[in-house]
Design goal:
This protein has five helices and no strands. By secondary structure, it is mainly α.
Length: 157
């Protein structure tokens, strides 16, 4: 019995280490929220237009998986630009433009691969949602950073 418990603890530690490592590159919370929302939306767009359940489901699942991993990574990159670049306007511009262009390009490429009945239409939600989402997220992260730095200066003096 002890050997099984030791094995389970070892497996949990490995999973925990992998998840902690991934947190450096992926915002899991926003990735999951985006995956459910975008995957459902893409399934609906494709099924409504084509009545093709199988390929619409594939398109929705591709979008969901892609959004979880790549979208979560995009938001982590957005946070990085918003908080690591000193000049605020440059930081916010980079935090919106670079992740948006990467996300829109990757989404269109993903859906252009066989299996998505409407690749351009499947890219429209990304085109409409990513720029404002990254703008809001970047602004909030930058504001939190500035508040933290202001409090740190006040506390240290």
């Amino acid at each position: 019995m002890k050997n099984i418990n030791d094995k389970l603890d070892l497996d949990r530690n490995v999973v925990r280490k992998v998840l902690n490592f991934g947190e450096k590159f992926i915002n899991y919370k926003l990735g999951l929220i985006g995956a459910v929302g975008m995957g459902s939306l893409i399934f609906g767009i494709n099924y409504y237009d084509s009545q093709d359940l199988s390929n619409s489901l594939i398109a929705g699942l591709k979008q969901g998986g892609y959004t979880f991993l790549f979208g979560g990574g995009i938001m982590k990159g957005c946070e990085y630009f918003a908080t690591k670049i000193r000049k605020k306007i440059v930081a916010l511009a980079f935090a919106v433009i670079i992740p948006s262009v990467m996300s829109i390009s990757a989404t269109y490429t993903l859906h252009s691969v066989k299996g998505t009945p409407k690749p351009f239409e499947s890219t429209i939600p990304t085109l409409l949602l990513v720029p404002p989402s990254t703008a809001i997220f970047a602004y909030k992260k930058r504001k939190n950073l500035e508040e933290y730095l202001t409090k740190s200066k006040t506390f240290n003096t």
